[in-house]
Design goal:
Shape: globular
Strand order of the largest sheet: 3-2-1-4-5-6
Order of helices and strands: EHHHHHEHEHEHEHEH
Largest sheet: 6 strands, parallel
Helix content: 40-55%
Number of helices: 10
Structural class: alpha/beta
CATH superfamily of the largest domain: HAD superfamily/HAD-like
CATH topology of the largest domain: Rossmann fold
Strand content: 5-15%
Number of domains: 2
Number of strands: 6
């Protein structure tokens, strides 16, 4: 019997990281902050509060955090009806479910944003559950989202594989005792992902799907 296939969404199943970068850049700009886009890019995948602290520092006016997060949400929300999934994303999830893997999403998105992402990926029939920002107290790189995904799938850590695109994904999976697998589609360098714990690295979902038999999801990996 196969185990749990846990997936991040932004930058992994959906081509949205750079949309987040632009939305955060504009939210910071409107609030009078100059933040370089490459710095924002490296912070994508963190919860809003952690992202703001990483980019503005602990000495910032923390009363501004809620307004910054709301501005990002509003700006990013203008893309909801046209979020693009990566080629092969939905097919990958369906293929894994067809092989007996329990597919669970572990994502910093929640609410209408998560609904829009799921519409873009268009594979709801393959998804068994979602550990979203609405369900946990701490987001990645804390292990809580991955541990919740394990609970939803009803499996042990050693029976699961986590696929993500950021160092935060790799660190969260490692801390939860789950095998971390990376894709390069989110724009983070291979070396950074491997340093954060990635055991295998694929170009994107289409690459992983094409090489599924030789991946951690292959027949020899089933439990």
């Amino acid at each position: 019997m196969a185990g749990a296939a846990i997936f991040d969404v932004d930058g992994t199943l959906a081509d949205t990281n750079h949309l987040h970068v632009v939305a955060w850049w504009e939210a910071f700009r409107q609030a009078g902050h100059t933040v370089a886009m490459p710095d924002i890019h490296r912070a994508v995948g963190l919860s809003s509060g952690d992202l703001i602290e990483r980019l503005l520092g602990s000495g910032r006016d923390q009363e501004e955090d809620e307004a910054l997060s709301a501005a990002h949400k509003t700006l990013y929300g203008t893309y909801y009806n046209r979020l693009p999934a990566f080629d092969g994303a939905g097919d990958l999830l369906r293929a894994l479910a067809g092989r007996g893997w329990t597919v669970v999403l572990a994502t910093s998105a929640g609410g209408p944003e998560l609904e829009a992402l799921r519409r873009a990926v268009d594979a709801d029939e393959a998804i068994s559950g979602t550990a979203s920002s609405d369900d946990v107290d701490e987001g990645k790189p804390a292990p809580e989202p991955v541990r919740l995904a394990l609970d939803l799938a009803g499996v042990r850590a050693e029976q699961a594989v986590f696929v993500g695109d950021t160092v935060w994904d790799m660190e969260a999976a490692s801390r939860a005792g789950v095998r971390p697998v990376a894709v390069l589609a989110g724009g983070i360098p291979r070396a950074d992902l491997e340093r954060a714990g990635a055991t295998e690295v694929y170009a994107d979902t289409a690459d992983l799907l094409a090489r599924l038999d030789d991946s951690p999801f292959g027949a020899s990996a089933a439990r």
